[in-house]
């Protein structure tokens, strides 16, 4: 059987398959469990807010301008206007994606049109590498510790043919963050013909007063794209919507690789309401901070090593290989994310859930970990 050209076949074979968090229904089907807790994909367990749900219901019911039978507003004008207002930006500086993952793909596609390489720190979101490779680029992972982001390592990994650099800030799955000084160095010292993508998917979980927003460097660097998603603190992961902000000219170029109608109407109206709902964000941020504190306390009680200072997740290291701990927890009805595919062989990533979900996690984890010992101290 012949599939594609030899070259396409070989290139595609080398691209790793993205492994998503296991859905609750799948675990229910496979293990016939009654109660399942999912702490695997960094979703916000508290939402979406009532205002957002009401807005979606209204949109489903339909009006002269909305309804499921009509195409959505292709460029998301109304949502982009709300984002522009919130961020103090021009409408033309904002692009929407079917999740911010799609904007990562658009950025790679645009930057790597003439070939070249993309760079990201080791232990980063898998889509950076996958998007680079599917755009025909070579992916370079720079050495980076799971506990600290290293600007010199990123700059040092850049090659003559590098066209795009990705930074998750905070970084998933390690939960490390580059401060304002480090970010400023990267923005200023990275060659200006390289597109710098700063992925701020988890930024809204940080203190808005102190968070080093890369968008504050937009006047200094035009080759800069800052990404946000509605999948995390806004709790709209099912609807698939995210946005990127950048220089007017950069966004107008990215618009050329965006598919028409890439974001759907329900996602647009939900996100338009969510982006103005500061109270829900503050509520979620506060619950997340409490859950983080409680997690570290519990990890210390079990003599486990937990790391990650930002985002809505924690990396937990144990004496067990990650796939084993993952399976043991799964059998107890708790879904986490094993991290061996991110070169973290003994780590699982645990999303911070509601107090009762974290109780279920520790009830299951204690049985396993107290038996084998965490072995990390
Ligand atoms: C760092 C990072 N960026 C982007 C995304 C993708 O989010 P979206 O659902 O908007 O595609 C994720 C999702 O887990 C993430 O962790």
Summarize the SSE layout with pairings:
Blueprint (H helix, E strand, L loop, with lengths): L5 H8 L10 H8 L5 E2 L11 H12 L15 H11 L6 E4 L2 H12 L5 E5 L4 H9 L3 E5 L8 H7 L4 E7 L11 H10 L5 E5 L24 E6 L12 E5 L1 H7 L10 H10 L3 H24 L3 E3 L5 E5 L4 H10 L2 E2 L1 E2 L8 E5 L3 H18 L5
Parallel strand pairs: 1-11, 3-4, 3-5, 5-6, 6-7
Antiparallel strand pairs: 2-8, 7-8, 9-10, 10-13, 12-13
This protein binds pyridoxal-5'-phosphate.
Pyridoxal-5'-phosphate binds next to helix 5.
Series of secondary-structure elements, N-terminal to C-terminal: HHEHHEHEHEHEHEEEHHHEEHEEEH
Helix content: 25-40%
Strand order of the largest sheet: 2-8-7-6-5-3-4
- Largest sheet features: 7 strands, mixed
The Rg value, from CA coordinates, equals: 21 Å
How would you state the average pLDDT, rounded?
95
Report the total helices: 13
Quote the distance from N terminus to C terminus: 53 Å
How many strands? 13
Bound molecules: pyridoxal-5'-phosphate
CATH-defined superfamily of the largest domain: Type I PLP-dependent aspartate aminotransferase-like (Major domain)
User: Class of the largest domain, according to the CATH hierarchy?
Assistant: Alpha Beta
- SS class: alpha/beta
Q: Rough shape?
A: globular
How much of the polypeptide forms β-strand, as a percent range? Answer: 5-15%
InterPro entries: Aminotransferase_I/II_large (IPR004839), HisP_aminotrans (IPR005861), HistidinolP_aminotransfase (IPR050106), PyrdxlP-dep_Trfase (IPR015424), PyrdxlP-dep_Trfase_major (IPR015421), PyrdxlP-dep_Trfase_small (IPR015422)
Keywords: Amino-acid biosynthesis, Aminotransferase, Histidine biosynthesis, Pyridoxal phosphate, Transferase
Modified residues (N6-(pyridoxal phosphate)lysine): 232
Pathway: Amino-acid biosynthesis; L-histidine biosynthesis; L-histidine from 5-phospho-alpha-D-ribose 1-diphosphate: step 7/9
